[in-house]
């Protein structure tokens, strides 16, 4: 706060920075965050949508870097995935292990979730392993077709200058 002409002014005042350490958050905030992650994990779309509409962060992450969208996708909750995408969740956020949302859906074999994520802008080449690698590794032929490649197609690997 600054003083201008003898009166306090909030102009140019900055809001306090959010805490960097989750343990410094109030217990009620931690409880709410845990509840939100559980809603995504269990696919409680109506209640999670209520919180999204009220303004919770659409890309909220847990301690492992998993977003609400990643948890909903990994557990195969297509309606929750759609709702999160409709509310602006980013399908290209990587978690703390460098894994992508769509690669998790491919790994679990949730073809429809992978389709919705792809249509929602998920990049199939993000992450390690990426969604393409997962589809090939686990022989998810339907997903490979969704991505527009056959099992042996897609990536050219150069070894010692030879393709």
From TrEMBL:
ANK repeats lie at residues 64-96. Residues 1-27 are annotated as: Disordered. Residues 16-25 have a biased composition (Pro residues). Pfam families: Ank_2. Residues 1-11 have a biased composition (Polar residues). Keywords: ANK repeat, Repeat. It comes from the Eukaryota. InterPro entries: Ankyrin_rpt, Ankyrin_rpt-contain_sf. This is Ankyrin.
